[in-house]
Each structure stands twice: as C-alpha cells, then as structure tokens.
Write a structure and sequence with these properties.
With 114 residues, this protein is mainly α. The protein has 2 domains: 38 residues, no CATH class; 70 residues. Helices cover 67% and strands 0% of the residues. It is built from 5 helices and no strands. It is elongated.
Length: 114
C-alpha cells in the first residue's frame, strides 16, 4: 500500500520511537529530513537533550529499583496477606504519600518536551 518513500519515512519514525523519542522530537527530525540543506545544529541539540532525558530516566529507574528492593525486604517469608510487610508498607506509603518514586519518577516513556 505504501510507496518506497512513505515506507522509508515510517521506518524512520519507528526507529526513532524505538530510541524512546517523543512524537514531537520525531516531528522535528522529520522536518529537518524534509529540508536537507538546513544546518543540523538543531538536530544535534535535540539529540543532546534526548540523551539528557534518557540519563535522567536511568537515574529515576535506579532509584525505583532501589526502592522496590527495599520494599521486597519488608517480607522475607510467606505469610498471610494481612501480615505481609510489603502490603503493609505499600498501604502506609500510599496513605501518607511518602513513596519516593511518586515524587521523582514518572515511570512513563516519551513524556519529555522538546
């Protein structure tokens, strides 16, 4: 159904999305692809910003992993659900809003702005 040009464009979009680029970022990159004589300084800047977003998300994910491991330590052996340290901690943190993750990590992909 697609001609070669459309297929190449779709593959480009798909690959950019696999790199966790937002749709806005992909639109900007497509604009530059469509104007090949323009300077690629903005493309470099966009990629640098995206790398920064990815680095930030990696830090958030490491904090999330640390929090989940600490949570896992709250229940070392099988017990009844009403005695589960994990469920108790989750309930308490949700009531108090003390979860570290809720303050720092979004756990969502591609929500950063361009």
């Amino acid at each position: 159904m697609y001609d070669a040009l459309a297929l190449e464009r779709l593959q480009f979009i798909r690959y950019c999305r696999s790199l966790d680029m937002s749709l806005d970022e992909v639109r900007v990159l497509l604009k530059f692809r469509d104007t090949p004589k323009d300077s690629c300084d903005d493309v470099n800047r966009l990629l640098d910003e995206h790398i920064g977003h990815v680095s930030h998300r990696i830090r958030e994910l490491r904090l999330l992993e640390k929090e989940l491991k600490a949570l896992r330590q709250r229940c070392g052996e099988a017990r009844s659900a009403d005695q589960c340290g994990i469920l108790t901690e989750l309930s308490q943190a949700s009531r108090e809003g003390t979860g570290k993750t809720t303050k720092t990590a979004s756990h969502l992909r591609s929500i950063h702005s361009v």
